[in-house]
Amino acid sequence: MAEGLLKQTLAQSAIDCHVSSAGLNALVGHKADPMACQLMMQKGIDISGHRACQLNSEMIRKADLILVMEAFQKDAIEKNEPSTRGKVFRLGEWSHFDIPDPYQKEMTVFEAALALIEQGVAEWAKKLH
């Protein structure tokens, strides 16, 4: 959901960058959750083609900015790749919040996660503009 929203928001703001997503413990090759797809389609964003991939060292080296959902993810990336310090931040960095993973939870949890993602994306778009 975050990748789709960030891509759309940055494109609308005429911010030229490449946005992709990867997980620390990704179910590689799996599609986005049907509830996530449904919520995003309501916003006019089709994420049905998304496939999960695992974050790797090459992605980390190429990235100028890495946004994570939760503080433990930031810590894990920085521990495994000390060179990332200063370029890994939470999506909710500016308002000091984590975004809990809604995977395998009910729709209300997906909706709550999406609301936090929207807030974080809006805040980052302002900072990047």
TrEMBL record:
One of its GO terms (molecular function) is protein tyrosine phosphatase activity. It catalyses: O-phospho-L-tyrosyl-[protein] + H2O = L-tyrosyl-[protein] + phosphate. Pfam families: LMWPc. SUPFAM superfamilies: Phosphotyrosine protein phosphatases I. Keywords: Hydrolase, Protein phosphatase. This is protein-tyrosine-phosphatase. Its EC number is 3.1.3.48. Residues 1-127 form the Phosphotyrosine protein phosphatase I domain. The gene is epsP. It comes from the Bacteria. Belongs to the low molecular weight phosphotyrosine protein phosphatase family. It is an enzyme of class 3 (hydrolase). The active site is at residue 101.
